[in-house]
Design a protein that fits this description.
Radius of gyration: 31 Å
Distance between the termini: 87 Å
CATH architecture of the domain at 425-492: Orthogonal Bundle
Oligomer: single chain
Helix content: 40-55%
Length: 495
């Protein structure tokens, strides 16, 4: 017999507004502009501009009146009234100047008086670039769709990590195209001839080999091909002596082959990454000015857009709700207008909360790293982790992490990603905590000043750091060296 029981439990769930705020927090300035543009397009109740009155939404008085009406009317059904004049919504969405036939910019306007528009970044995506090349092949409609499915399966790095069987299954279920694995592999081979070289590879090994095929044939290229095709595992584990012994080649020949491999691109799709990822043109989220020893923090103006509720929608809400009787279509229109206005209010509040959180978090980082922002010296960077900032501002570590993600600050010493200021600490001989970034800087200087004919080993670097008061293990030295993309001593050796 089935027994029914009741249980009571306490659960914590995020509201839609909280989820929206968290998503906005981790969005950088350049992407925020696109996010606002999307919201403006999807919600006609949201408008660009600012309100000067104390009630930015203009709804307080209206909401009070509406609440009184609802209390009097209760849940009664509205009777249909065919004589009721339906309001033309479009009349309220037109700009006042447009209705008077004067919707244009006057020639006498100054630049400061011109309407502020949100710039939209236009760029060719990675998929667009590949599809343009696909259009140059003479394929029938069926094979064209299969090839488009393959291109759609290529990730941002340029790899095709789905096997031919899975792609064939997708085509059968989603597009009702029956194909064999062999046909899919044949089209993959065609796509691998596209630019950039190394595209649609299954793994790193295949990606590098595809790029080597495009290079002019030489002894070094042939040797590099053999290393990657036959000794890839030894190469990844850096068993270089074993490779040289098996191939019976000299140190010079091996170095030339390695130099060829190092010039290859492990992520061919990275050429189409955004400017933020590539370190190209960066839009800073914050500005820090040194005003005679006083640090002044400001938020990028693009991070603080002026948004408001559309005047047309506010007027429509008043008009629709003022009628004593409403038919079904009018009630549905009223519900739609209220829904859009509520969504616009939530979005505006989320943007304001985003600005506040960004400023509070960045101000804590600025105060923590005050000496660096005053001097610009990396030696003055203090060890700092996410928890240090979270404790100062009374917020969760995840919130600080979202703020620090993909955000930049512009100072008089350059523009830095916020993650630059976070580092762990080690204790020197004096008992002081120093940033690991300081150790990396000294390590980089030691390697730069070494005799290239006799480069310093990791053991030697450990001893030199110890002489300067930094007790670091040899494996830690190796880790820092790899993080700075500095090869081992035998590969730094020059004749």
């Amino acid at each position: 017999m089935l027994r029914q029981t009741q249980t009571q439990k306490l659960a914590q769930k995020l509201s839609p507004q909280q989820i929206q705020l968290m998503k906005l927090l981790q969005v950088p300035t350049a992407s925020l502009e696109e996010r606002i543009k999307d919201e403006l397009e999807s919600n006609p109740a949201l408008d660009v501009g600012s309100d000067t009155d104390n009630d930015p939404y203009g709804l307080n008085e209206h909401n009070n009146e509406s609440a009184g009406k609802q209390g009097e009317e209760g849940d009664q059904e509205y009777e249909s009234n065919d004589d009721y004049e339906i309001v033309d919504v479009s009349d309220y969405l037109r700009d006042e100047n447009e209705l008077h036939g004067d919707y244009h910019l006057n020639e006498g306007y100054e630049d400061d008086d011109e309407p502020k528009t949100i710039p939209v970044k236009v760029e060719t995506t990675f998929s667009d670039y590949l599809n343009d090349q696909l259009g140059m092949l003479e394929l029938d409609e069926r094979r064209q769709e299969i090839a488009e499915q393959i291109i759609g399966s290529i990730d941002d790095d340029g790899y095709l990590r789905r096997d031919a069987t899975s792609i064939a299954d997708d085509l059968a279920f989603n597009k009702n195209i029956i194909t064999e694995e062999e046909e899919v592999r044949e089209l993959i081979k065609l796509i691998q001839d596209f630019d950039p070289p190394g595209i649609a590879a299954e793994d790193l090994r295949e990606c590098l080999l595809l790029q080597l095929k495009r290079l002019e044939e030489s002894t070094s290229v042939k040797l590099a091909t053999i290393i990657l095709s036959e000794y890839f595992e030894e190469f990844t584990r850096k068993h270089y002596d074993k490779i040289k012994q098996r191939l019976k080649i000299s140190e010079e020949q091996f170095r030339e082959a390695i130099n060829v491999i190092l010039k290859l691109t492990p992520k061919p799709g990275s050429a189409f990454a955004s400017a933020d990822k590539l370190g190209g043109y960066i839009i800073p989220d914050f500005f820090i000015f040194n005003n005679n020893g006083n640090l002044e923090l400001t938020l990028n103006a693009r991070n603080a857009p002026e948004l408001r509720i559309s005047e047309g929608y506010k007027e429509m809400l008043r008009t629709y709700d003022s009628g004593q009787r409403k038919n079904k279509s009018q009630r549905e229109a009223l519900a739609f207008i209220k829904q859009k206005i509520d969504a616009a209010k939530w979005f505006i509040d989320a943007i304001k909360q985003r600005q506040h959180t960004l400023l509070v978090t960045m101000n804590a980082i600025m105060e923590y790293q005050r000496e660096f922002f005053l001097t610009g010296s990396e030696a003055n960077l203090r060890p700092m982790i996410l928890k240090d900032v979270a404790d100062r501002i009374g917020m969760d570590i995840s919130t600080v992490s979202r703020v620090a993600n993909s955000k930049y600050v512009q100072t008089e010493y350059g523009t830095f990603v916020l993650k630059y200021f976070f580092s762990e600490a080690i204790v020197n001989d004096s008992g002081e905590e120093v940033s690991t970034r300081e150790v990396k800087r000294i390590l980089s200087e030691l390697i730069a000043e070494e005799d290239k004919k006799k480069p310093i080993s990791d053991e030697g670097l450990m001893e030199l750091l110890s002489e300067r008061g930094y007790n670091v293990a040899r494996r830690t030295v190796a880790k820092y060296r790899e993080q700075m993309d500095i090869p081992v001593a035998r590969l730094r050796k020059q004749a």
